[in-house]
């Protein structure tokens, strides 16, 4: 059975993007420029990727122009749009919790919630996130796209790992 893991970077004040949706501020403080960070090791555990339309659109139009950055991994894009599925990309316009439950049952490795805030918020609110892996970037944005909008309930967490590199702090939590 797979585990649903929210793996995202956020600013010190809890934003995942600036007001225009930009992520140009992502990066460390330069104190360890050669540090590989946690992404390569995390990516090795990923079996399936889930993201919202905005994240998908940003990846294909702003961040990666040459090729899809997740070759060989099934990817589900949650959207209300009627899109044609592509090679390893399935456009899901059903209920998000149904997709989450389906993937947990069918997949073995980590199911990476890659973004964005709406998808993450819905899954958190419905109790579907098994692990939160947050990379805190040494930047205060002041405004933008908040990772944790009002949830309406508290979520108790247990810290299972913390590490730092290049000014970035990774915090890994599981539900208590």
TrEMBL record:
Residues 3-165 form the Bacterial bifunctional deaminase-reductase C-terminal domain. One of its GO terms (molecular function) is 5-amino-6-(5-phosphoribosylamino)uracil reductase activity. GO terms for biological process: riboflavin biosynthetic process. Signal peptide: none annotated. It comes from the Bacteria. This is Dihydrofolate reductase. It comes from Anaerotruncus colihominis. The lineage of its organism: Bacteria, Bacillati, Bacillota, Clostridia, Eubacteriales. The gene is yyaP.
